[in-house]
Design goal:
Helix content: over 70%
Number of strands: 2
Distance between the termini: 21 Å
Number of domains: 1
Structural class: mainly alpha
Shape: elongated
Largest sheet: 2 strands, antiparallel
Low-confidence stretches: none
Strand content: under 5%
Mean pLDDT: 87
Oligomer: single chain
Strand order of the largest sheet: 1-2
Length: about 475
Amino acid sequence: MIRLLIEKELKELFRTSKVIWMLGAILSLMFLALYNGYAYYVSHSSLLRESQEVTYKQFISQGDKNPHLGAHFGFYAYKPTADMAMVDNGIEDYTGNSFYLEPHKRGVVKFKEISDATGLRSFGFLNIGYLAQFILPLFIFLITHNIFSKEWENGTIKLLLSSKATTHQIFAGKLFACLLLVLSMIVVIALAFMVLLWKENDQGSFARLLPACGFYILGLTLFSIMITAIGTSVSLLTKSSTLSLILLSGFWLVGVFLLPRLAGEVSKNVYPSITSLEFENKTFDEKQYGVGNEGHKDIRREKLLKETMAKYNVKKIEDLPVYFIPITIEFFEESDGVVMDRAYQAVDENESLQDHFVLASAWLSPFLAFRDFSMRITATDMSTHNDFTRKAENHRRKIGEIVDDFYQKNTVAGNDFWKTVPQFSYQAPGIGWRLGNATHSILILTGWMLFSIGLMVFSSRKMTV
């Protein structure tokens, strides 16, 4: 019986030119999104890999120099394009991709893609993530808003209820008919981007990506089922196509555009960020004058000199078997690093509070919850960006230690030494780490799934003439 009901609904859906045009439009957007995502991934990956190699080769071939001055020549650590950025590039365009590795200066990630984009980029970048989060839900609502209400408007509800089918079978038949359309598109999306990922990665890399791909597809499937269930249930409860469309489109508009913007603005007021000027002044004072009883830099330098001379059992700085300047450099690199770590940790914690505040509003918007889930699974979120920043900073300090150790006994460094400085490489954490960061959004999506199930049960019991 359910199979017959599904066939009936599919015939009715495809009988109207509206559905045909919508399917054509969504499929066109789907392939455009795949192309945009693929082109973005290929161009950015190639550019960043080449830039990483060029800047490193320049560093290791700089010739004979004082080790410290040569270290200041520096090179860039580039954040590689996320392995699933062709699906969802998340906040990649807003966070930058390069971290300068230079002594004494904690790098700041620079070169934000969005700074060179046109005003049209403010509407978002069309890829599979954007399509799934914003366009696909609207398409689902457009095909489900009158799936039940048309029966009352056409006067066919009596015939439908007088058939041998139960109300649960009628509901299931209409729901599954809509799901067939929606899930068929997800299958096309999944197959297409899996082929593109396979094309751009070797066998080992592709195998490593499979868990993340699997969880993303699973999340997208469950999200689409939930949205379809909500649209179908609202159509049954309202018994009016116009009212159903108003409610569903209003829910989409508020959840996709208004609520995220409002939550973002409120979060900035609840958890205000420190300004760059305040940050610079605070860190400068702490590095120069110390924290607590550390004392001024001059006092700490004198104390370090006494400890160093005692270590080597000499009375004068000239009698030291090593150069004192690099010892001083390394000492203050460590103490300044503690100051900067504490300062950036405070910034990250405040940023995390803002993010949690915004995500909490996703209890009113499943679209926002899925957006967070999508970015975390594809490793294009702020947590992954902060992980890259931390590892790049650790690499910068590692370079400083290598140079300072060499500088203690040598005043000139050549290319043979520069080649001992390791190249930087970064790989985003695995699926376990990503799922752990996505726990909150998964919990919210689970809550919305339970709500959609409850709404289906409630609405099916209201199926009367």
